[in-house]
Amino acid sequence: MTSLSIASIIAVAVGAASPVVVRAQGDVAPPAATVDPSWLQVDTATRTATFQLVAGLTGLNGALNFNGFRDGGLTLTVPLGWTVLMYFRNHDGMLPHSAEIIADTHPLPTGPVAPAFARAFTLRLEQGLASEQTDDLRFIADRGGSYLIFCGVPGHGAAGMWVRLAVSGSVRGPSVAATPAGKP
Ligand SMILES: [Cu+2]
Question: Fewest C-beta in 10 Å: which of 5, 87, 156, 159?
């Protein structure tokens, strides 16, 4: 009977402690956006970088973000000459979004502009793709430099819905990393 009583006390103690833990989690600030390594797949044989580009992955910036990042806070780096395959998906339940690779320009365009690489843009660039619609971009990163992955729906990119693409002649493989956010 003594052991049962102790078990009951422990059970009560655990039960009492649980709400405290929940409250403690609720009090802390939401975690900063993190880079999920599974977004990027690398095929060295075909020299192809495959990237999952998700519009409105989180609620950040009114969902005007790619993969939870805004204003260049994420950079995909690929070696010069590699093929880039981007699987675009609009995760935003409210707004349409699109994506294109554009030159690193300032000020930011207010709508669609000519892409920096042939076919480096999604369908319905200006109107955007509706919630959970997908499209693929496939292009060869045949010119080095800094580029923007930019939402072409008017106003979105200028409001922060862009991240970065770097095409580098001095890296051995693709990578994706969080980078300082700011104006281009
Ligand atoms: Cu958008």
Answer: 5
Classify 82 as helix, strand or coil: coil
HEC string of 95-115 equals CCECCEEEECCCCCCCCCCCC
Q: What is the DSSP code (8-state) at residue 151?
A: -
The SS3 assignment for 117 reads: coil
Q: Identify the architecture of domain 38-178 in CATH.
A: Sandwich (2.60)
- Domains of the chain by residue range: 38-178
Distance 162 CA to ligand 1 centre (A): 9
pTM: 0.83
Report helix, strand or coil for 128. Answer: coil
Distance from residue 60's CA to the centre of ligand 1 (Å):
12
Q: What is the mean pLDDT of each run of 10 residues along the chain (184 residues)?
A: 44 39 47 89 98 97 97 98 98 98 95 97 97 98 98 97 98 96 80
Cα 96 to middle of ligand 1, angstroms:
6
| 120 neighbors 140 (Cβ within 8 angstroms) | no
CA of 6 relative to ligand 1 center, distance in Å: 58
Query: pLDDT value at position 6?
Result: 44
